[in-house]
Structures are given as structure tokens and as C-alpha cells.
Design brief:
Layout: H1 16-25, H2 34-47, E1 52-55, H3 58-68, E2 76-80, H4 85-92, E3 97-101, E4 103-104, E5 109-110, H5 112-118, E6 123-129, H6 138-148, E7 152-155, E8 175-179, E9 192-196, H7 202-209, H8 215-219, H9 239-250, H10 252-269, H11 271-277, E10 280-281, E11 295-297, H12 301-313, H13 329-334, E12 335-337, H14 342-350, E13 351-353, H15 362-373
Parallel strand pairs: 2-3, 2-6, 3-12, 6-7, 7-8
Antiparallel strand pairs: 1-9, 4-5, 8-9, 10-11, 11-13
Helix pairs in contact: 1-9, 2-9, 3-4
The structure holds pyridoxal-5'-phosphate.
């Protein structure tokens, strides 16, 4: 049998080994060195953001966001049910309650109408996630947030550098987060970033990342000693990871171009099969997305498992995605819903993601397409 086509494969950038060797040969392997500065500047330029702090993960950046917003018991956060557990963990850790709402089936993104219904006197913030880098409905969500004076936090793990017309993803919320886990478009093994878009939060974010000390100010020569000034933890990314990240970010345009080529072939070459099979292909409004993932929405729940098995038998690893948080054991413990989230459940049970990574060859892409086309409902 031909080689198995994995669902995803971490990108290998040209300069990462050389960068790593530079760090290891130096006397500076902890964070905040030359590669941290360079990678942060690249993310800032890609995102059009003023303040970028590299972190140990996106989960930790979300945790920082929850602490920066001073969430605590009695507070409520409105967030999507169809997302990864990270934002929910970050909020639950503070003792605040999660209010999960349903999605817009066009994109899988949080539905602004349901946000408006869920906001109450205890609501402290709205958390959103741009699924596949498809922008959430920012005008509508922004209007709800302004009406109630609520900050927005963007989990932008999928959407680094996505141009959403009048702004770039990651600059819409007061705080936004990126992931550099090795399943993401650009990676450092593990890693993340916090984009601080409210200048009033920058100093505290820096202190929080440096174990509650003002070491960053000390390193810039702004204070002559550093001490413990606030609550913090060890959220700073190691220079070793930053060295890999910097090299990957250097090739960002090429990575995106190669991922987009695969994405475009799926969208074009699977269209007829999808039409005949009543399958819906991923349909990004205005064509805006991050080429992070490509999905099919099968016409029934039962067909999700069937096509995944069919593809696996042909050496193609496809997979489902998030199990809605509201129906998960921890979601039931830390959160609540206004009503059953039928659309999240339906979306989750019909969705199938195809392999997508920057190094996929034309042949491999063709094999995935032919394996999908050979599935008869
Ligand atoms: C990958 C991912 C995360 C977690 O990122 P880490 O860097 O592994 O913590 C969070 N949210 C979303 C939407 C993700 O896809």
C-alpha cells in the first residue's frame, strides 16, 4: 500500500537548526533574548499589533487574559461551545462561570445573536474564536460589546495574520492569543503569544509573564532593581523555542501560499462530488480564511464515521473536530447554557477535516481528492 498521508505534519523551516545552534552556543537560552524580540516583531508586523508577548502556549496566553481582566467567582463569560478547551480552562481557573452559546452554521463561529441573548449583569467579557481563521462577525459582536461595555478576547490560534478587510485578526479584541503548537500553520513545538491591544494592560501583562516581577522594565533600564510587584507566573517562551519560531515566521508567506494551494484544490476539485452527494464544503464568507483547515459537512451524523473509515482504508487520515464544550464533563461542571446548543452538536457530528499541511505534494493532494470522490453515500 502507498504511504499513509497524515492529517498534519509540522513545518520545517530553513533556518531553525542554525538558529537553535546559535542559542545553544550563547549564554542566553531563557526567554527575552534576540530571537524572542525578532519573532515578536514579526508577529506584530503580520498582525498589525503594537504589543506582542511570546508565551509558553496559547492556553497560557488565554490564562493571562483571564487574569488581566480580573475574572473571579460570580463573574460570567460568554463564549462558544464549539471551540478548544483552552479558553474554557483559562476562565474556569479563575472561578468565573462559562456561558456557552451556539454557532453560526455558515462558519462554525459564535453566533452574535446568541451572544446578545446570553449577556447579563454578571457578564464580564466575551470570548470568541475565529474558526479556521474565518473572522467572527466583528461588527455585530462589537456592537453588543460596546452596548454593555464588555471587553472582547480573541482566541486567534487558527488565524495568524489573516486580513479581515479593515483589520487583521488579533487586533479586534482588547486581548488576543496565538498558538505555535506544532499542529498550527507556524510552530515552535509548543508556544503562543498574547497580543495586548489595550495599552493600559501592557505593563501588567509583562509583569505577569515574568513571575510577577518587573524584570522586563529592569532589562530595558527603566528601573535599577527588579522585585516582586504583582501576581504572575512563568509564561515566558524559552529562547530555544523562539529561535525555531523566528525561522518559521520568516517563511510565513511561503507557508501560507503552499497551504492555500492545497485548500484551493480541495475547494475546486471536490465541488462536483459535494454537489452530487449533498455534502457541504467549507465556505468562508468573502473567501477569508487562514488555510489552517479544510472541512466537509456530511449530510448526516452517521456518514461522518463512515467517510473517515473509508479514507483511512485508503491511507488518508481525516478527522472530526471539537466535541462541544457544553456537553463535555468539565463543561457541565464549569459552565451553563440558556438552551440546548443543537447547532453546535449537529456541526460537530457532521464535520470532517481533510489533511492539510504546507509540505503536501501535488500527488498527495490528488490522492486525498480521489479518495474522497470514491466515497459513495
Ligand atoms: C491549538 C488551539 C489552542 C491551544 O493552543 P496551545 O498553544 O496548544 O495552548 C487554543 N485554541 C484553539 C482554537 C486552538 O486551535
Amino acid at each position: 500500500m502507498e504511504d499513509v498521508i497524515p492529517f498534519s505534519r509540522p513545518f520545517r523551516s530553513a533556518r531553525e537548526l542554525e538558529n537553535l545552534a546559535t542559542v545553544l552556543a550563547s549564554d542566553h537560552a531563557h526567554g527575552d533574548g534576540r530571537f524572542t524580540r525578532s519573532a515578536s516583531a514579526r508577529i506584530a508586523a503580520l498582525s498589525d499589533a503594537d504589543h506582542v508577548l511570546l508565551t509558553t502556549s496559547c492556553t497560557h496566553a488565554l490564562e493571562m487574559a483571564s487574569y488581566l481582566l480580573d475574572l473571579g467567582p460570580g463573574d460570567e463569560i460568554v463564549m462558544p461551545s464549539f471551540t478548544f478547551a483552552s479558553a474554557a480552562n483559562a476562565v474556569a481557573r479563575t472561578g468565573a462561570t462559562l456561558v456557552f452559546v451556539d454557532l453560526d452554521p455558515t462558519t462554525g463561529n459564535i453566533d452574535p445573536v446568541q451572544i446578545a441573548e446570553a449577556v447579563g449583569t454578571a457578564t464580564k467579557a466575551i470570548f470568541v474564536m475565529h474558526y479556521g481563521g474565518m473572522p467572527v462577525d466583528m461588527p455585530a459582536i462589537g456592537a453588543v460589546a460596546r452596548e454593555h461595555g464588555l471587553p472582547i478576547v480573541e482566541d486567534n490560534a487558527h488565524g495568524l495574520g489573516v486580513d479581515a478587510g479593515d483589520r487583521t485578526l488579533g487586533t479586534f479584541g482588547v486581548l488576543a492569543t496565538q498558538s505555535f503548537h506544532d499542529t498550527k500553520n507556524v510552530h515552535s513545538g509548543e508556544g503562543g503569544a498574547l497580543l495586548v491591544n489595550d495599552p493600559a494592560l501592557v505593563d501588567r501583562a509583562e509583569i505577569m509573564r515574568e513571575k510577577g516581577t518587573n524584570r522586563s522594565q529592569f532589562l530595558r533600564g527603566e528601573v535599577d532593581k527588579y522585585s516582586w510587584v504583582d501576581w504572575g507566573s512563568s509564561y515566558l517562551l524559552s529562547e530555544l523555542n523562539a529561535a525555531v519560531l523566528d525561522s518559521q515566521l520568516e517563511e510565513f508567506d511561503g507557508i501560507q501560499r503552499r497551504r492555500l494551494e492545497v485548500w484551493d484544490r480541495y475547494a475546486t476539485e471536490l465541488a462536483d462530488w459535494a454537489g452530487e452527494s449533498s455534502v457541504r464544503l467549507m465556505l468562508p464568507p468573502d473567501g477569508i480564511h487562514a488555510a489552517h483547515l479544510f472541512y466537509l459537512l456530511m449530510p448526516s451524523w452517521e456518514l461522518q464515521g463512515r467517510i473517515i473509515r473509508h479514507l483511512r482504508e485508503r491511507g488518508v487520515i481525516a478527522t472530526f473536530h471539537y466535541v462541544p464544550l457544553d456537553s463535555s464533563p468539565a463543561g457541565r461542571r464549569f459552565g451553563r447554557v440558556l438552551r440546548p446548543l443543537d447547532r453546535s452538536e449537529d456541526f460537530s457530528r457532521r464535520l470532517v477535516r481533510l489533511p492539510l499541511w504546507a509540505g503536501m505534494s501535488e500527488d498527495q493532494t490528488t490522492r486525498v481528492i480521489e479518495a474522497v470522490q470514491s466515497f459513495r453515500l
